[in-house]
Structure formats: C-alpha cells, structure tokens
Specification:
By secondary structure, this protein is α+β, with helices and mostly antiparallel strands. The protein is globular and about 70 Å long.
Length: 398
C-alpha cells in the first residue's frame, strides 16, 4: 500500500502495476509467516544443542567457551584483531579505571583491505598478510616489542575446543583460501607471527564477531544477553544455561553460544519463503545451497537482489526504455551501498545515473525506493524473528 501511494503521481497501466505489486509481495512477511520461521528456527536450535542431533543440525550452536559477561573489573592493554569480510581491523585497546561509574576504554585502530588474491589464495599467505598488518599497526604505535595479549575475532564458522583454540569448519562471505578448512586458525596465526619474528604477541582468545558484539554491549548494558550481526554476513549469539549444551562437558553456569544461523534453511525449511531473486543469488554464488538464510538478509547480497529486481522491471519496460545496459546485466555491479544512496540521497543517485533520462532517474528513485525499504524490512523482520526464537518456551530455553 505504501509503495502504491509513493507511485500515485506516476501513471502505470494496470498490467504493470499488478506485476510491480507482485514483486513487492515477494518480500512481504506476514505475522503468521514470522511465527512459522521463529518456530522452525527454535526447533533447529534445539537440534544444534543436542549431543546426538548436532551432527545433522544446520544451525550448529557452537559453544564459544566464553562463560560470563564483563563485570566491570577488566583492566589492561590489549591487541584486538577482527577478520570477517573484505576489511581486516587491528585495534589497540586500553581499559582503565571507570570514570563516573562508566567504562573507561581508549582505542586506536586501523583498517586494512583484504585483497581478492589473499582471501582466495593459499591459507599461509592469508595469515602472513594478517601478521604483516599487525606489524604495520604495532610499529606505528611503537609497540612491536611490547608483549600484548591478543583477542582474535574470526567471523567464520569454527569448531571451538577452548577459548584459544578453533578450527575452521567452512569458509563463508566469499573467502576460499586453501588449506585452512579443518585447521586451527589460532595455530596458523601464531605460525605466521613466528615466521616474521619481529613482534611480541600472545593470542589468548578467539571469538566470533557476534560474541565480541555481545561482550562489547554488555560492558555498557548489563542486561544484554544476545549479540546480533546483520552486516556483510549475518549471525547471532546468546547466553545459554550450560546444562542445556549437550556438545560440551561443562554443566555449571552459562555458555555463550555462537549460533551460526546463516546456514538456517540449507535443509529446505525456508524454501516456501525464498523467492526467485533469492534463488538467483544463490545459484550465482560460490557456495550454492549453503548459507541460505544469510543470503536472504545480509548486506553482501542485498545489492544483487535489488539489481535483479531492476533487471526484471527493465525487461517489463518500466525502466530505461526496456533496454538493459551491460553494467546492469552483470552480477555484482549494483553495490549494496547504492541501495543506501537511493534511500537517502537522490542527488547522488542521479549522478550515478547521469547518462539516463530524468524520467529514469525519477523512476529509479521513487519507484525502487519502496522496494529497497521492503527488502530492508524483510532483513529486519527475519533477524528479529530469528532472535525471538531464543525466548520461545522450549526445553532448551528453560
């Protein structure tokens, strides 16, 4: 309805209006649909927590071996690493005495690009690149000879055996570096640091970015129990009673569970909610049939979904006189950042479409913006629905 109101000053014939409404309908989720997704995820979560059922579960519910939230007594200097996409971040973190009852945290950071040749090449070269970035950062701060405890945020599905030991299960988010799957990523990082021999670092913890997000938020909000990422990829974690976690021998206290929910639906339980655009995105990806939930809601795929909708509209004659440009026809050319520009800055969007007619610029802005909102709305609904599965009255949540 909102989309139709935004188009009220632009006349469409009934046939095209019907087709446009059908496209928008592909991204609608009713309250009943949300409840169905929530219930299916809750069942999959239970399966992932079970010792015998975990092997067949698509949501692996991986114990992080983080057993408590920050209590405000943490102090010291630390090096933090964050690898989870096309950027690699290095941070120096100094946690001091609280000021007026609030955490006193000072940070310095730098972002390094992860070249395509590095994330798809030999695994040793990937970790050598990481170690090189670490040395560059530490040298700038004159800390290369200072022994610092290191926390490694490694945002890919891992089997974790302890707080400082994790083996990569499978690459996601476009990474395919060889010789890493099945290997201990902490050991590979330590070996890369040792090969350089020019810095002092002690890797004491490896966590997923969702776990890091939860720990960071809990520093300021003591009641926070769930960490949620909807960025390049998507994932969630939460604090679970250890007695409900059948995949570890720990029974006392709590355990932060890294859900790895991106693989939800890989067994077909979301097929009735996936549309033709979701299937196109999956078929064109490097990991067909995997991470299907993530492909529906994460930033890495949002731009491509919108591109496919624009292609559909062009073929129906609503855009560009029905003529597809080479750029619009190619996979991946419509970046997710363009979606934000369409939603928030029409002048910037027009500059990107400077070779198009004023009619097409207007049409892309005021005609596709509702779809961008619709896709963002689906992102938020899916993420919120999945997070709500945590509080369903299931045995594992009691």
């Amino acid at each position: 309805m909102a989309a139709q109101q935004q188009r009220k000053n632009f006349l469409l014939d009934d046939s095209l209006e019907s087709k446009v409404s059908a496209i928008e309908g592909d991204f609608n989720l009713s309250e009943e649909s949300c409840r169905t997704v929530m219930e299916r995820m809750a069942l999959e979560m239970q399966k992932g927590l079970g010792e015998e059922s975990n092997e067949k579960a698509k949501i692996k519910m991986i114990p992080s071996y983080v057993t408590s939230l920050p209590d405000g007594t943490e102090r010291g200097n630390f090096l933090a690493l964050d690898l989870g996409g096309t950027n690699f971040r290095v941070l120096h973190v100094n946690i001091g005495e609280p000021i007026n009852g609030r955490p006193n945290i000072d940070m310095d950071s730098q972002i390094y690009k992860m070249p395509e040749s590095v994330i798809t090449g030999p695994g040793d070269e990937l970790f050598d690149h990481i170690a090189g970035c670490m040395y560059d950062f530490l040298s700038r701060l004159h800390l290369s000879n200072t022994l610092l405890p290191v926390g490694f945020t490694f945002s890919f599905p891992c089997k974790q055996d302890s707080l400082d030991s994790a083996s990569l299960i499978k690459w996601t988010k476009g990474f395919s570096a060889t010789g890493v799957e099945g290997e201990n990523v902490v050991t590979m990082l330590k070996e890369a640091i040792h090969r350089r021999g020019d810095m002092q670092c002690n890797v004491v913890a490896v966590v997923n970015d969702t776990v890091g997000t939860l720990m960071s938020c809990a520093n300021f909000e003591k009641h926070c129990q769930i960490g949620l990422i909807v960025g390049t990829g998507s994932n969630a974690c939460y604090m679970e009673n250890s007695k409900n976690v059948g995949t570890t021998s720990i029974e006392d206290g709590d355990m932060c569970i890294n859900m790895e929910w991106g693989a939800f639906g890989d067994d077909g339980v979301l097929d009735d909610f996936r549309n033709e655009y979701d299937r196109h995105v999956d078929n064109a990806s490097i990991n067909v049939g995997r991470q299907l939930f993530e492909k529906m809601i994460s930033g890495m795929y949002l731009g491509e979904i919108v591109r496919l909708v624009l292609v559909n509209l062009t073929k129906q004659g609503a855009l560009f006189n029905g003529k597809l440009s080479p750029a619009l026809s190619r996979y991946g050319t419509f970046e997710t950042s363009f979606v934000s520009q369409i939603e928030g800055d029409s002048m910037r969007m027009r500059r990107r479409l400077e070779s198009s007619s004023p009619h097409d610029c207007w049409f892309v802005n005021y005609f596709t913006m509702p779809h961008c909102h619709q896709q963002h709305y689906r992102q938020l609904l899916c993420a919120a629905t999945a997070a709500a599965a945590r509080v369903l009255p299931t045995p594992a949540n009691n």
